[in-house]
Amino acid sequence: MELNGVRVSRETQERLLHFAELFQKWAKTINLVAPSTIGDLWSRHIADSAQIFQLHPHTDHWVDLGSGGGFPGVITAILLAEQGAGHVDLVESNQKKAAFLRVCLRECEARGAVHAIRIEEAPAVIQHCDTISARALAELDLLLNYSEPWLERNENLHLVLHKGRDYARELQKARGRWEFDLVKHPSVVERDSVILELSRIRRLI
């Protein structure tokens, strides 16, 4: 099996298939993603989430903010299991979604843990991370605010964020308050979408 042109093992394929089964089951009772996108689960959500991991496959410690339906946090945790190293802390305040995420991590034997807390509370619980991911969560300026406590502890922290066609406006707004190096990766899954990779982040005001 290949994800975005990258071959994964049969074991990882089985884990991803089991995740998809769990997702379809739970999505019947709780709102995990927009209902109109469930039919495109593999391309719209799973393969799209895998792009994040493929940019930083050797990151030791991830934090995924607003993990929701498991994208990209559970997918990252499954792909880390193939390597046998690394860990993802998934932050999701909705208790029903957090329960779903815990089941996914356990049954897919993925490398992660779920924290059913508000994002603002997470830095007090999760002391350190190397890379922060988020998908369809908030504007860039707010995501940088959320990340600031971890930035203060790790100046080499990276943010890897899925963004839609309005990303240029978000960048302009964020650059009024923040300085950062930016690499823009075109999405290999969704046209007009990008993955923004930020590093050397520093607050200006």
List the main descriptive attributes of the protein structure presented here.
two-stranded antiparallel sheet; 7-stranded mixed sheet; 40% helix; 205 residues; 23% strand; 9 strands; Rossmann fold; globular; alpha/beta
Structure, briefly:
The protein has 205 residues and is an alpha/beta fold.
Give a description of the structure:
This is Ribosomal RNA small subunit methyltransferase G. This protein has helices at 10-26, 41-55, 73-83, 95-107, 122-125, 140-153, 167-174; strands at residues 2-3, 6-7, 61-65, 87-91, 112-115, 131-135, 158-163, 178-186, 194-203. The chain is of the alpha/beta class and 205 residues long. It has a seven-stranded mixed sheet with strand order 5-4-3-6-7-9-8, sandwiched between helices. Strands 1-2 form a two-stranded antiparallel sheet.
Topology of helices and strands:
Blueprint: E1 2-3, E2 6-7, H1 10-26, H2 41-55, E3 61-65, H3 73-83, E4 87-91, H4 95-107, E5 112-115, H5 122-125, E6 131-135, H6 140-153, E7 158-163, H7 167-174, E8 178-186, E9 194-203
Parallel strand pairs: 3-4, 3-6, 4-5, 6-7
Antiparallel strand pairs: 1-2, 7-9, 8-9
Helix pairs in contact: 1-3, 1-4, 2-3
